[in-house]
Design a protein that fits this description.
There is one protein chain. The chain folds into three domains: about 180 residues, Orthogonal Bundle (Helix Hairpins), CATH 1.10.287; about 160 residues, Lysozyme (Orthogonal Bundle); about 55 residues, no CATH class. Helices cover about 75% and strands about 5% of the residues. It contains 14 helices and four strands. Strands 1-2 form a two-stranded antiparallel ribbon. A two-stranded antiparallel sheet has the order 3-4. Helix 11 crosses helix 12. The protein is globular, with a radius of gyration of 30 Å. The two termini are about 55 Å apart.
């Protein structure tokens, strides 16, 4: 009771802190949007960078609070599991004693019971004892089943929390890198302009002429083995966007964040990190389903299943086996396969092909209304892509913000390519 109350107090405390931070972050987002609408100047550029740095600091603080919240929840869940295990052992022992008594009655025939009973009331008393013991034993069995169900639920919830903890660690690293990048942007801007508005305008003018350089710059997805010119990546995302209604910049931004997180990408083998992992977790049916789907995918593509890169398992809390830049599990890829094929014309499509990976993710995102292309719908779709049903919680929201930040960056490059010499992000 005490632990439960303490956990509730912590949950309430963390919720208040995050709500306050969320409000401050939203306020800064409004300021950033308003500043972007103002005339482009050194003063506004520096003001915007300061707003973005403040926002990054608040987001990192909120992420750290989420990590503490999850750590506290993991401790609580472990306590609940230990209590359930103790209760389970207790019920098992009581059941054992009840069964032992019933076995004692089973060894006595009804004739012996009549002789032993003395009179008819004693016989009925003995019979009543047997019924009570049977009822008690059935009650223990039901109680054990209930405890086991609760135990499985708690363990599953604990695994989710541990997975969240690992992914949050990646998000935190990404947040810190983003903050460093913002601070460096400000430092370079001040060095190059020396606080002079005319020098700033000269730099902007020069940037307007560098469309060819924008096209040639690398679009690289870390740890996935994808590296191409930005123009090529944009053309692939544009093709996918035309088929699904998504903004190409949004697609490019999401893949950039996914690859930079790097938690699930590469380094695994399907036997160890997928099949054997699920067997080890006691999920044999899931193991067989994923194995069957994976072998079907590689066979249809004429690929050696043992040589294809898949994600590694997450410690002891989650299995790997996700494929390609989109990091689809084999069974998930199979559910999207026909739709991907009909849109890309690739039959069969490959999770290791960047265009097919773009398309698979875009279909999943458009199913969550990202094709309406509003900021809110894209934010929600990105959060759901990351966190599923828990998309409204802070980790999903933070992930979505980082996706939109990268999408904003790529949108300026796309605008420059499509419309000619416009103001490009410094």
């Amino acid at each position: 009771m005490k632990n439960n109350l303490q956990n509730q107090i912590f949950v309430c405390y963390f919720s208040i802190l995050k709500t306050s931070l969320e409000s401050q972050i939203e306020n800064l987002e409004t300021k950033i949007t308003d500043t972007k609408k103002e005339q482009k100047s050194l003063k506004n550029e520096l003001k915007n960078i300061d707003f973005e740095i403040q926002k990054q600091i608040l987001e990192e603080r909120a992420l750290n609070i989420s990590l503490k919240e999850i750590d506290e929840d993991i401790t609580f869940k472990n306590g609940e599991i230990n209590k359930l295990n103790t209760e389970l052992d207790k019920k098992k022992n009581l059941l054992k004693e009840a069964v032992k008594e019933l076995n004692g009655y089973d060894k006595i025939s009804w004739f012996e019971l009549l002789l032993k009973g003395g009179d008819i009331s004693d016989v009925f008393g003995q019979i009543n004892n047997i019924h009570q013991l049977q009822k008690q034993a059935n009650g223990f069995i039901q109680s054990i089943d209930d405890i086991r169900t609760n135990l499985e639920s708690e363990k599953s919830s604990l695994e989710d929390k541990k997975r969240d903890n690992i992914r949050l660690g990646s998000l935190t690293a990404l947040q810190q890198a983003s903050l460093s990048r913002k601070k460096n942007d400000k430092k370079i801007l001040l060095q190059d302009t020396q606080g002079n508005e005319e020098k700033y305008k000269s730099i902007i003018s020069k940037n307007k002429k560098d469309i060819a350089l924008i096209k040639q710059q690398l679009y690289k997805l870390e740890d996935v083995g994808v590296s191409m010119s930005f123009e090529e990546a944009y053309n692939k995302a544009k093709f996918v966007g035309e088929k699904t209604g998504l903004r190409p910049a949004f697609i490019l931004g999401l893949f950039q964040v996914e690859s930079k997180m790097g938690t699930y990408i590469g380094g695994g083998s399907w036997q160890k990190d997928l099949y054997q992992c699920y067997i080890g977790l006691g999920k044999r049916q899931r193991a067989e389903d994923e194995k069957s789907a994976y072998l079907e995918i590689t066979s249809s593509l004429g690929l050696d299943p043992d040589s294809m890169p898949v994600s590694k398992k997450l410690s002891s809390v989650g299995c790997g086996g996700a494929m390609g830049a989109a990091q689809f599990m084999p069974t998930t890829w199979m559910s999207f396969k026909n739709q991907i094929s009909s849109l890309t014309g690739h039959n069969p499509p490959s999770p290791w092909n960047i265009e097919d990976a773009f398309m698979g993710s875009a279909i999943k995102l458009s199913n969550n209304d990202a094709n309406s292309q509003s900021v809110q719908s894209e934010k929600k779709a990105a959060a759901m892509y990351y966190a599923g049903a828990r998309w409204q919680k802070y980790p999903g929201q933070n992930y979505a913000r980082q996706v939109l930040e990268w999408a904003d960056y790529y949108q300026e490059q796309i605008n420059a390519i499509e419309s000619g010499p416009l103001s490009i992000k410094f």
